[in-house]
Amino acid sequence: MSEDTEEKKKLASFVKSVHKDLRKKFKTGEKDIHDIWKEHCKNTDNLRDYSEAMQKLATVHWGDQQSERIQWCRNTVVEYFSGGGQKKCIEKDCKRLQRQTTVAEFPPDRSDILKAQSTTCRLDISEHLHIAPSVPEKPLVLDVGSCYNPFKEVSEFEVIGIDLYPATEDVYQCDFLTLEIHDDEKNTEVIHSLSSPITRLPSCGFNVIIFCLLLEYFPSRHQRWKCCTQAHKLLAPHGLLIIISPDSHKQHRNSSMIRNWTAAITSLGFSKWKYEKLQHIHCIVFRKTKLECSAKDEMADLMVIHQDALEEGLEDETCTNRDPVRERNDEEIRQAMFALPGRFSDSED
User: 217 and 145 in contact (C-beta within 8 Å)?
Assistant: First the structure.
């Protein structure tokens, strides 16, 4: 084994051990997740070692894989804002609204219920479509868990990187889970006068938010859920949430995890715009299609990662069609998805 390979394995093992230790502390139930997280945030030596390990893995050992992630995000943002992607999405929203306003006769036994739900959908969409979407010259991107600011060389957008323990000076220190989000008409002024640590940010201030290898860090499903609710509040109308999740298996292996995440995140007021499985990662893109964040805490149960399934002894998803998490929340998902303005996939039509 070469020295580089040995170092890569050592660094990766350390990173995984930090994640595993947090999950272990959470699952034993000896302490509340908030106390566990507070203790973790106070352990600056461990945070520093983790940050340095992630930076070295990304810049020295991941090579083409890391470049691929950066380029994929860059291409996605450019396609949406400069390549007409946003315009196409809005046109599809209009088609959906038209379909819903020209619904044929309802079954007699469900007439009142279906009419009420259809009216709700029409109001949600029409309210959102009345906001004229603007295409920014340079989309403002918030890179959460940035570490060393990997997108700083991308010229097509402006990026603000935040991290629990930044590896470089051009990244702001911030605990995204405890970040306060407030309404402020002077978004641009506030965002361009930031300093570490960041404890508050304005709502609807960003065009894109990136979670690259972020959600797996958190031991609790509710923490992952909280990250997504925070993102919805911070995004401008029609903004993008880009999630990159590690997975070296083939696409179908953890497909139920992606379905669960999609159901949970779209219930907040997002619509899935794009999904792609690359060699070692899942790439999912959601766009903000509803102004208000309609968070339902029970949907947090769907934010499962495959490590949860392994450690909790759930059935191997490659050997069964059953999905325990989805079964428990089946009715909630159906209701949530029916009420969403974007319940038709953006890939349809």
Answer: yes
Cα 206 from Cα 241, distance rounded (Å): 10
List Cβ neighbours of 264 (8 Å cut-off, separation of 6 or more). 225, 228, 299, 300, 302, 303
pTM (2 decimals)? 0.82
Q: Cα 38–39–40 angle (5° rounding)?
A: 90
| Whole-angstrom distance, CA of residue 168 vs CA of residue 152 | 12
- With H, G, I as helix, E, B as strand and everything else as coil, classify residue 158: strand
- CA angle in degrees (0–180, nearest 5) for 82-268-160: 45
Tokens coding 296? 């339902």
In terms of Cβ atoms closer than 10 Å to its own Cβ (0-12, 13-18, 19+), residue 209 is buried
Beta carbons within 8 Å of 238's beta carbon, 6+ residues apart: 86, 89, 90, 133, 287, 288, 289
Among the listed ranges 13-22, 170-179, 231-240, 337-346, which one has the minimum average pLDDT value? 337-346
User: 135-166, pLDDT tens digit by residue?
Assistant: 788 999 999 999 999 999 999 999 999 999 99
Residue-wise DSSP of 1-44: --HHHHHHHHHHHHHHHHHHHHHHHHHHTSS-HHHHHHHHHH-H
* Amino acid identity at 160: I
